[in-house]
Amino acid sequence: MPIIIYFSHKDENMVHGEMQKISKGNTAVVADKIAEQLNIEAVELAPLKKYPESYQEMVDIAKKEKMEQARPGYCLAIPDLSDYNEIIIGYPNWWGTYPMIIASFLEDYDLSGKTLYPFCTHEGSALGSSMDDLRKSCPGALIEQGLAIHGSKVEMAKRAVTHWITRLI
């Protein structure tokens, strides 16, 4: 049985080119849709240090973390992944790939022999280089086809999620 592990950012976000306050991050919305369809658990990768609410501040921090190859701390409610052979991993696309908090997670867990099903939310850059980056970070894992959902369309993504799930899992 797979598990969903995701990182998501709420608060201020860019939606259709305008700033909007969102109470639930886009990636969390998609994670919940996947969890509901598969009847499995979705576990949030929560940052130890809360990211800023301001979209522009968040963009600046994400850029800095990527340039410095930072490894932000996080909390994961399920520390032992040995019972899971399939991991559905979700993240927003920040600066062309997954956020550095995902890089922290990937370095902390040996995912060799596991199958990863990546999904991301974005505002125009789709999966970016995250698929290649996942292959480099997890050389012993099988990385399946990813799903990219436009952030401003997550509420209408049930059909895309269903199609992705039925093709892969």
TrEMBL record:
<feature type="domain" description="Flavodoxin-like">
    <location>
        <begin position="24"/>
        <end position="166"/>
    </location>
</feature>
<dbReference type="Pfam" id="PF12682">
    <property type="entry name" value="Flavodoxin_4"/>
</dbReference>
<dbReference type="InterPro" id="IPR029039">
    <property type="entry name" value="Flavoprotein-like_sf"/>
</dbReference>
<dbReference type="InterPro" id="IPR008254">
    <property type="entry name" value="Flavodoxin/NO_synth"/>
</dbReference>
<protein>
    <submittedName>
        <fullName>Flavodoxin</fullName>
    </submittedName>
</protein>
